[in-house]
Design a protein that fits this description.
two-stranded antiparallel sheet; mainly alpha; Methane Monooxygenase Hydroxylase, Chain G, domain 1; 10 helices; signal; single chain; 5 strands; Phosphonate ABC transporter phosphate-binding periplasmic component; coiled coil; 3-stranded parallel β-sheet; D-Maltodextrin-Binding Protein, domain 2; transport
Length: 215
């Protein structure tokens, strides 16, 4: 995101002018504020966010947003949940911001079960969550948690997270000072192969979704 009056309107604009911009990155422990843009915006464009800009700072979602609104940062990472919350608590600040890029959807707190559960118990659990949110009372509960109805899913929902975890591993391997050149190259090659395989699966699923919508 940038200030609404900024001439930066896209990732391409940002990267082209990076050396003149102050960038607010997320906390390194944040998935949406650090890992996601780190992979989709920077790694995929072969850019090192720590050196590409005039200055790079790391902070929380809210601090980044307020700093951009105040003109202390030129561009920064944020996330949708924090944006919605800020729109309620400080709508005047949100009015001063402009989104220039959104990531692919990433899973928010998926519900998982043990594979040791019986099919009967799995069905009961799945049906409970799938049906929850049909009544007015249940809708109110979900609304108060800033959530909508639960959707049926599978392990494929975690594909973006697996990508991000591999990206994190790749970053650590690439920056390692203890691995020799051959071992580092081998590990990076293996990680890149895994990333390619995950991307092929995501592309396949996206194509199925597109075909289903077209049909």
């Amino acid at each position: 995101m940038v200030r609404k009056d900024s001439p930066i309107n896209s990732v391409e604009d940002m990267l082209k002018n990076a050396k003149s911009l102050t960038f607010g990155n997320g906390d390194p422990n944040s998935t949406s504020g650090y890992l996601v843009p780190g992979y989709y915006v920077f790694a995929k464009n072969h850019v090192d966010a720590s050196t590409a800009f005039k200055r790079t700072l790391n902070s929380s979602h809210e601090v980044n947003a307020l700093s951009v609104a105040k003109g202390q940062l030129d561009v920064a990472t944020f996330n949708t949940e924090s944006w919605d919350r800020l729109a309620v608590t400080q709508p005047d600040k949100v009015e001063q911001l402009k989104v220039i890029w959104k990531s692919p959807l990433i899973p928010a707190d998926p519900i998982v079960w043990s594979k040791a559960l019986s099919d009967e118990n799995k069905a009961k659990i799945r049906d409970f969550f799938a049906d929850y949110g049909d009544t007015a009372e249940e809708k109110t509960v979900l609304k108060n948690m800033q959530m909508g109805k639960f959707l049926k899913s599978s392990d494929d929902q975690l594909l973006p997270i697996r990508q991000l975890e591999l990206f994190k591993q790749r970053t650590e391997v690439a920056a390692s000072t203890t691995l020799d050149a051959q071992e580092k190259a081998t590990r990076l090659k293996d990680i890149d192969a895994s990333l390619k395989k995950l991307q092929e699966r995501i592309t396949e699923l996206n194509q199925k979704t597109a075909d289903s919508s077209a049909g």
